[in-house]
Every structure is written in structure tokens, then in C-alpha cells.
Write a structure and sequence with these properties.
alpha+beta; 33% helix; Alpha-Beta Plaits; 410 residues; 4-stranded antiparallel beta sheet; Aminopeptidase
């Protein structure tokens, strides 16, 4: 480690009260994925914070979210803008940094403020997932900018408003930025013990709209075609697919439809999720779903499937393993031992990997119980994880790690 490296690491704040104050201020502001007013109110906070970096933050409009309603019709819901920061886009090494400013807690949630759960542990909406991660990213980059190697390292930062709903608008942007980058950094939380995500399954969200034929249940029941009954057969078949192929899971999350009990129902909407470890498994799963739809075909029934794998699988490829090895080497300089564990969870790292940009996607704080009112973050992990990011960044910028190697390995 050079004197410049040490100076960079020493520039990262170590005052835990300072970190607590910053993250509390950010997390006490509600930014549920569909709380537009809250998201728009928080954007200027991010713009001011990230404005200290050499690139000027800009707002990036996203394509609307397509929602299939209980009536079977599609509507387009506008999304809040993403925040984009571009720094040295002509530098020889290019990276992409991603994070999200939305949370799963909407404006009506009772979980709205940060408290000290116990000494050194914060409980609050987004402390781990992932406003804590956004703060870690920012402080690592601020410290790195004073390093002599910064001139060789360009990057784009995307902070999205829709990660918690599957990145319907930001997915194309993630694909574009990933294709332009040599390496990727994403700030989802690590586990409380510091373990990080290895391989990630892919995730697909689908809605199946089934239309049947209404009829009077007493006078003409046989003339009707029940969309509810067709949905029930489909869901039973879907759930029966669990265990048919290793690592592939199917889950029905919601069924809408029906009406008066004296009418054969002519509409049902079944919403489900599919998880698959790799591209071949995802293709098998989609073919299996299509087969179930084909089996249900009958006179008077129609099926319309929408959705897809918005989070492609992120398997352990040679290129991905090289990034993990680089991260372990950077951590070792700080006295940290990193362990990467495979998970069924998904994030923006899936999208980057699908574009060929191999990445570390759990560079955020140590914490846990995310997506619940027990979400927590371990306070001393804030400076620890900022130092880890800075060490990894400068490793690529200085040539200690080869930023081009992961793409070559594939």
C-alpha cells in the first residue's frame, strides 16, 4: 500500500456519530418506490451530496412502469427520475456504480424513522437497503478523487428510483451503462457477518390474464367458461413445477378476478415469480410456463402472458470469480476476510452482469432483516465498507488489479 493509498483511506470519516447523523437524515425521508412526492423531495438531497464529485449530477427520465390491473388492462405509471453522474468518460479505465434511493416502505407505512436499536446498531427504513450503501459509495469516491490515480479512472453513477419494484424503467439504462464499463460496483448490504453475494439467481415477474365466457350459473352454467377455474388449474400446475429442475422455483403471489357468485367468472389475473440459476434454467422455466398455458387452451378461454426476467441470472463465471478475487485481495490489505455466498436474491448486479459487466454487488453496509421493520445496519461498518470500496477502486485505477481481465475471461 502506497502513501497515497494510505492518505486516501485516512480521508474517510471515522466519526460514527457523523455517519449516524447523515444516514438518519436520509432515512427519515420516506422514499417508497411509488411515493412520488417523497422521491422527488429526496432528489435534491442526493444532487447536493453527489455534486461534490467532479461530474455534474443530472436527472434521467425513465420509461414508465407497465402495470396489469385487476381488470386485466395495462396502464403506464410514470416513474421518478434516476440520478446520473458522469466522471471522466474518456479515461482508460471505466466503471459503473449503481444504487437505488427507493425503499419498500411507502408513505403509509408505520416504519418511518431511524432509532438506535442497541449501541452501535441502527434500526430504520433504508439504513441498510440502501441509503446506508449510497452514503458508503459517496464517501469512498470522495476520498478516491484526491488520489493521483484518479485521472486514469472514469465512472458513471446511476442511482435509481425503481429497484425495489424490479427496475422496470432503469433496466435498459443499467444494460447500457454496464456495456460501457470494464467493472461494476453496487451497494446492496452485506450480511451482518460481512459475507457478500456470490452467484445470484435470475428473477422473472409475470402476469397471466385469463378471459373466459360469462354465463348465468343456474340457467346456462355449461355455456360459461370460468376464468377462475382456468386460473386455478394453471396455478396448481405452476406450483407443481417446483422441484422439477434443480434451483428453479415458481411462486404465485396474487390472483384477481371473479364477481357475483351467480355468474360464471369471465376474468382472472394470476401474478407469479420465477427464479432460475442460469440462462438455460430460465429458458426451461419459460417453456414450462408456456406449456401450461397451452394445456389450458379451450373453446371460450384466452390467455395473455406479460412480463419476463427483468433480473437475468448472475452465475459464477470465470470473469465474475476474478472480480471476487480482486475484492478479497483489496480487503486483505485492510485486514478483512471476504466470503462470497450464493443467493436467490436479486439486484442491479444481475442486470450489469447480463451486459457483460462483472461486479461486486454487496459493497454496502453490514446489516440485515431488510424489507421489514426490523431492518438494521451496524454502525462501524460504514467507514469499514467505505475503506473497502476505496481500496478496490484504487486497485483498478492503479493497475494493481486488471480491470479488463474479467471481460476477457467471460
Amino acid at each position: 500500500m502506497t502513501s497515497a493509498d494510505r492518505a486516501m483511506l485516512e480521508a474517510i470519516p471515522t466519526d460514527l456519530a457523523w455517519w449516524q447523523g447523515r444516514v438518519t437524515d436520509w432515512c427519515d425521508r420516506n422514499t417508497g418506490s411509488r411515493h412520488d412526492a417523497g422521491l422527488m423531495a429526496f432528489l435534491p438531497v442526493l444532487e447536493e451530496a453527489y455534486g461534490v464529485l467532479p461530474g455534474t449530477p443530472s436527472r434521467l427520465d425513465l420509461e414508465p412502469e407497465v402495470i396489469v390491473g385487476a381488470d386485466g388492462l395495462e396502464t403506464r405509471r410514470p416513474l421518478a427520475p434516476a440520478l446520473l453522474v458522469e466522471v471522466r468518460p474518456q479515461a482508460p479505465v471505466q466503471a459503473v456504480f449503481t444504487g437505488h434511493y427507493d425503499t419498500v416502505f411507502d408513505a403509509g407505512s408505520p416504519f418511518q424513522t431511524v432509532v438506535v436499536q442497541e449501541p452501535g446498531v441502527l434500526n430504520g427504513p433504508g439504513v441498510a437497503d440502501m441509503k446506508g450503501g449510497l452514503l458508503v459509495m459517496l464517501e469512498a469516491l470522495k476520498a478516491f478523487e484526491a488520489h493521483p490515480a484518479a485521472a486514469r479512472f472514469g465512472y458513471r453513477i446511476l442511482i435509481s428510483p425503481d429497484e425495489e419494484i424490479g427496475s422496470p424503467g432503469s433496466a435498459p439504462v443499467l444494460a447500457r451503462l454496464g456495456a460501457q464499463a470494464d467493472i461494476g460496483f453496487t451497494y446492496e448490504p452485506a450480511l451482518a457477518d460481512g459475507s457478500m453475494s456470490g452467484a445470484r439467481k435470475g428473477s422473472g415477474n409475470f402476469a397471466l390474464v385469463i378471459r373466459g365466457r360469462a354465463a348465468h350459473v343456474g340457467r346456462a352454467h355449461a355455456e360459461g367458461r370460468s376464468a377462475i377455474a382456468a386460473a386455478a388449474r394453471f396455478v396448481a400446475g405452476l406450483e407443481a413445477l417446483n422441484g422439477a429442475r434443480a434451483g428453479v422455483t415458481f411462486n404465485t403471489g396474487r390472483i384477481d378476478g371473479g364477481g357475483p357468485t351467480n355468474v360464471v367468472p369471465d376474468l382472472a389475473v394470476a401474478r407469479f415469480n420465477v427464479r432460475a440459476p442460469d440462462a438455460a434454467d430460465a429458458a426451461w422455466a419459460r417453456a414450462a410456463v408456456d406449456g401450461l398455458i397451452g394445456d389450458g387452451a379451450a373453446d371460450g378461454l384466452s390467455f395473455d402472458l406479460t412480463g419476463g426476467f427483468t433480473r437475468p441470472p448472475k452465475p459464477r463465471t470465470p470473469g465474475q470469480e476474478q472480480v471476487f478475487a480482486d475484492a478479497r485481495a483489496a480487503a486483505a490489505q485492510l485486514g478483512l476476510a471476504l466470503e462470497f455466498k450464493d443467493t436467490g436474491g436479486v439486484c442491479e448486479g444481475n442486470n450489469l452482469a447480463a451486459s457483460g459487466c462483472f461486479n461486486v454487488d454487496t459493497l454496502g453496509v453490514r446489516g440485515g432483516l431488510i424489507h421489514s421493520d426490523r431492518e438494521f445496519a451496524i454502525l462501524d461498518s460504514f467507514p469499514e465498507r467505505a475503506r473497502l470500496s476505496a481500496a478496490l477502486i484504487v486497485g483498478y485505477a492503479s493497475g494493481t488489479f486488471d480491470p479488463k481481465a474479467p471481460r476477457r475471461l467471460g
